[in-house]
Amino acid sequence: MSDPADLAARVREGDLRLHELEEHADPETAAAARRELLEAETDADLGTIGDFSFAAEDAEPNVENMIGGAQLPMGVAGPIPLNEDGEGGAAEGDFYLPLATTEGALIASVNRGCSVIRAAGGSDARVTKSGMTRAPVFRVSGIAEAAEVVEWVEENVERLREKAEETTGHGELLDITPYVVGDNVFLRFRFDSKDAMGMNMVTIATQAACDLIEDATTASLVALSGNLCTDKKPAAINAVEGRGRSVTADVTIPREVVEERLHTTPEAIAEANTRKNLIGSAKAGSLGFNAHAANTIAAAFLATGQDAAQVVEGANAITTAEVKDGDLYASLSIASLEVGTVGGGTKLPTQNEALDVLGLRGGGDPAGSNADALAEVIATGALAGELSLLAALASRHLSSAHEELGR
Ligand SMILES: CC(C)(COP(=O)([O-])OP(=O)([O-])OC[C@H]1O[C@@H](n2cnc3c(N)ncnc32)[C@H](O)[C@@H]1OP(=O)([O-])[O-])[C@@H](O)C(=O)NCCC(=O)NCCSC(=O)C[C@@](C)(O)CC(=O)[O-]
Ligand SMILES: NC(=O)C1=CN([C@@H]2O[C@H](COP(=O)(O)OP(=O)(O)OC[C@H]3O[C@@H](n4cnc5c(N)ncnc54)[C@H](OP(=O)(O)O)[C@@H]3O)[C@@H](O)[C@H]2O)C=CC1
């Protein structure tokens, strides 16, 4: 009954469906049966995909139709000295940042940026705004009814808060922003999701609030996500209003450090930043006024179990670079960095270990402080990557670096 070959045969014969195997076998055996079936049908050898080191059972909340594990090389950049004045930041001290990537030269680049930040005496980072959003869309008969619904929502925020917060022990409703388009009412709910990235938490809480709105008004819910949230799509609303954490990291680097470690000058980095990240991005109609923040964000997301699709929002970031008193001041402001240290993929074993490297596994004290700290460390790692790539461009080392390390 629980032999992978027998199970695979039963799927082949139409007796079982591929996704029903866990009802007849433990998760390891079910995954082995799927591999057996796929290997027979596709001629692929799944020996490496099947050679994963965590318990299949641990991944049950994270994946369906499991066949094994995708393995990525993981490296580390740092240490990054952060917020050493000890005032106001959530992260404080030296942090090693685990990064999972397949892009040669990326970690070397971030690591070089970290070494520059160390030589400069450290950087500061702060979360300046926080809140995870979900924006349902309701159908109404027209603008008159839309105005009535919005008025009801504005007058009943407390009732809606009560309903929403009944579904969660941690989430807190911060505000509801209405948007009306013709006979559509969008309500952008924003929650403090503490240490969770919060998309499940906030979606469940918003559904409860929507039930009350439908009971009390004439509005009819069309979709719990009406795309004004905006999750996993490029969107100006996230770049302007923020989503998840809005976080900024900055550093002042002495001229001699720029010259010795980055082989260029503060002026050349500032010029490259203006012409490339600001003017080039403006001309391209980009939402990302940075060089490659998504590179560090994606690698940190994969290492620490964040939702990889939300790298889209992480790319809403502006890099600044200017010469101040002969030194280089540089900053990176990420408008919508969606991270958590509990829930989702953070519970998986390798991702847990990576969060342990940062000292940020699980819930913080106070709740939310671990996720704030993670946002600050990732932003600083991404700033390190910005500095190194801008320097490589300014000193014309980009292609040679990738010739040496990236192939
Ligand atoms: C490759 C470097 C760092 C060499 O830079 P370098 O200055 O010649 O290196 P170095 O050997 O003198 O070492 C300096 C520091 O770099 C680090 N470092 C150096 N090598 C390693 C290594 N193997 N492993 C780990 N760390 C390394 C390390 O911190 C070291 O300090 P130390 O610890 O020795 O005191 C530099 O040329 C560089 O950063 N280039 C830029 C590469 C880059 O940023 N690539 C990112 C991807 S590009 C992309 O995907 C986006 C793009 C470009 O399309 C976006 C856009 O449109 O702009
Ligand atoms: N549903 C959707 O529309 C979407 C879902 N996702 C997926 O959602 C998942 C992430 O959702 P998310 O809600 O973050 O995670 P989970 O669904 O895993 O829920 C995390 C839960 O952890 C509990 N918790 C314990 N300690 C804390 C703490 N210190 N701070 C905050 N919460 C704590 C909370 O329970 P309690 O609420 O009971 O207090 C919280 O709801 C990812 O897997 C992602 O891929 C992504 C995009 C959209």
General description of the model:
By secondary structure, this protein is α+β, with helices and mostly antiparallel strands. It has 14 helices and ten strands. The strands form two sheets. Strands 3, 4, 5, 6, 7, 8, 9 and 10 form an eight-stranded antiparallel β-sheet that branches. Strands 1-2 form a two-stranded antiparallel ribbon. A hairpin with a 2-residue loop joins strand 9 (317-324) and strand 10. It is globular. The two termini are 47 Å apart. The model has no long low-confidence stretch (mean pLDDT 96).
Furnish the topology, listing elements before pairings:
Layout: H1 4-12, H2 27-42, E1 74-82, E2 93-100, H3 106-119, E3 124-134, E4 137-139, H4 143-155, H5 157-165, E5 172-181, E6 184-192, H6 199-216, E7 220-223, H7 236-241, E8 244-253, H8 255-262, H9 266-284, H10 293-304, H11 311-314, E9 317-324, E10 327-337, H12 349-358, H13 369-394, H14 398-405
Antiparallel strand pairs: 1-2, 3-6, 3-8, 4-6, 4-7, 5-6, 8-10, 9-10
Bound molecules: 3-hydroxy-3-methylglutaryl-coenzyme A and NADPH dihydro-nicotinamide-adenine-dinucleotide phosphate.
3-hydroxy-3-methylglutaryl-coenzyme A is lined by residues 103, 105-109, 111-112, 115, 263, 291-292, 295, 388-389, 392, 397-398, 401, 405.
Protein name: 3-hydroxy-3-methylglutaryl coenzyme A reductase
Keywords: Coiled coil, NADP, Oxidoreductase
Organism: Halalkalicoccus tibetensis
